[in-house]
């Protein structure tokens, strides 16, 4: 059986409608080799506080808080509970953290939506947060074993003998971020899986770099035209203000990107730091509600989450996850690409998005992998990631799934559009997608 067989489980949200009231995200701050000014909980608290204040919703009326986070660190175990308490939700509001690698924020939204659809909750604060610059640097197993022996050495002589066994290799650190971005089953880093897609679909370095330039140009235009109203500034303990995604390079060019060396497959690879998503810190939170909560609290409505899908595939081809997750949704609803007004496919790598669009319209791929009689119609480039994406603004892994969902809804609102798709590839060989709809902004 082909290892890329899609998951055909029906993901349609059954039960009552689930509304997205609104959302807020922080600026995404590029990691620059040292811990950034904010931890994961700081970022989520900033976004959550701004959102609740914007809506005039008291924290203690929320039924639960659900956050996605890949690595919150030792001082923020169950970061969602830390955030709920810091926001003033009170002791009685439960909170829980989910982890599905790059789609953790989307998993949090789906988990919240399912609870609302099944009438277990009325109002849920959900989203994702990640401070990748704070991912831990750990001791290796040699040093851990040595410390165990040291703790059992009682006499001065025993401790002296233990000290004599220390070697330079004991002090070699384990960089959790780098280890986490490598698949332990197939032994490939996420960048190497991107190189696999470049080879499979014949995607050139020039086309990757051109896509990266486009991402920066679109983000620069969105900022200039003040389209990113979901961003709320951050303020650090020194009084410094962080108002924008600071990884944007508005002067990015093909000539500048062409000078960068391959990172993952030297010296002949095509994936570089310039055409890959940026490692960054950030949070995105959304308020989800039932129609009863919308009416009772007189809340606005940004849109609805109407369907979801998770899919599995070969971890070495993980970048194709969006294709595997989006296809069942469109098939369930008997839709083709032209029925979707707004597409947000997370830019883990430029080549990964390009590979997804190539596979989507490939009759061979759709027949042999998706078991479809025909390919999907091409995704209109003008409807895809219209304000940039992870290549230009960053990819804080726990937050991106919530960010692309929020931004898809914001674009739909801006354009008066009816349907949108938000989707991500997921390390380990998975894909996730949400179908989003608007019907005039009414919960009735």
Main attributes of the structure:
444 residues, alpha+beta, ten-stranded mixed beta sheet, two-stranded antiparallel ribbon, 17% strand, globular, disordered N terminus
Q: Overview of this structure, please?
A:
The chain is an alpha+beta fold. Helix content is 36%, strand content 17%. The strands form three sheets. Strands 1, 2, 3, 4, 5, 10, 11, 12, 13 and 14 form a ten-stranded mixed β-sheet that branches. A two-stranded antiparallel sheet has the order 6-7. Strand 3 (64-68), helix 2 and strand 4 (95-98) form a beta-alpha-beta unit. The model is unreliable at 1-10 (pLDDT under 50).
User: Shape, please?
Assistant: globular
Largest sheet: 10 strands, mixed
Order of helices and strands: EEHEHEHEEHHEHHHEEHEHEHEHHHHEE
Alpha plus pi helix count: 15
Structural class: alpha+beta
How many strand units? Answer: 14
Radius of gyration: 22 Å
Q: Tell me which oligomeric state these chains represent.
A: single chain
Q: Helix proportion of residues, in percent? A: 25-40%
Low-confidence stretches: 1-10
**Beta-strand percentage range:** 15-25%
Distance between the termini: 46 Å
Whole-number average pLDDT? 94
């Amino acid at each position: 059986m082909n290892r890329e067989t899609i998951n055909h489980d029906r993901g349609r949200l059954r039960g009552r409608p689930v509304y997205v009231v609104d959302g807020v995200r922080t600026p995404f701050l590029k990691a620059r080799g040292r811990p950034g000014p904010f931890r994961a909980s700081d970022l989520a608290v900033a976004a959550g506080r701004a959102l609740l204040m914007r809506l005039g919703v008291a924290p203690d009326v929320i039924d639960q808080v659900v956050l996605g986070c890949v690595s919150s660190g030792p001082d923020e175990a169950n970061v969602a509970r830390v955030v709920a308490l810091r926001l003033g939700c009170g002791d009685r509001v439960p909170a829980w953290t989910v982890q599905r690698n790059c789609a953790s924020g989307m998993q949090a939204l789906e988990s919240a939506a399912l609870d609302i659809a099944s009438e277990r909750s009325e109002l849920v604060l959900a989203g994702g947060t990640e401070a990748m610059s704070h991912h831990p640097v750990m001791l290796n197993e040699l040093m851990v074993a040595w410390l165990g022996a040291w703790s059992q050495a009682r006499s001065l002589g025993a401790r002296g003998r233990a000290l004599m066994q220390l070697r330079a290799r004991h002090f070699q650190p384990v960089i959790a971020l780098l280890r986490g971005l490598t698949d332990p089953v197939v032994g490939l880093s996420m960048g190497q899986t991107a190189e696999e897609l470049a080879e499979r679909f014949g995607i050139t370095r020039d086309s990757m770099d051109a896509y990266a330039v486009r991402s920066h140009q679109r983000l620069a235009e969105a900022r200039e035209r003040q389209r990113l109203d979901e961003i709320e500034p951050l303020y650090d303990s020194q009084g410094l203000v962080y108002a924008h995604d600071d990884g944007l390079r508005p002067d990015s060019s093909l000539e500048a990107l062409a000078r960068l060396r391959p990172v993952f497959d030297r010296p002949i690879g095509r994936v570089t730091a310039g055409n890959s998503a940026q490692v960054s810190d950030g949070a995105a939170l959304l308020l989800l509600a039932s129609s009863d909560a919308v009416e009772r609290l007189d809340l606005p409505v940004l849109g609805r989450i109407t369907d979801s899908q998770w899919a599995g595939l070969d971890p070495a081809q993980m970048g194709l996850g969006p294709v595997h997750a989006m296809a069942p949704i469109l098939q369930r609803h008997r839709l083709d690409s032209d029925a979707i007004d707004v597409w947000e496919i997370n830019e883990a790598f430029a080549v990964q998005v390009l590979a997804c669009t190539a596979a989507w319209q490939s009759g061979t791929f759709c027949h042999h992998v998706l078991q479809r009689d025909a390919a999907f119609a091409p995704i209109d480039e003008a409807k895809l990631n219209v304000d940039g994406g992870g290549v230009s603004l960053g990819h804080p892994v726990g937050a991106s799934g919530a960010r692309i969902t929020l931004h898809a809804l914001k674009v739909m609102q801006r354009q008066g559009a009816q349907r949108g798709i938000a989707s991500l590839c997921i390390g380990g060989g998975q894909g996730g997608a949400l179908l989003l709809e608007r019907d005039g902004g009414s919960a009735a």
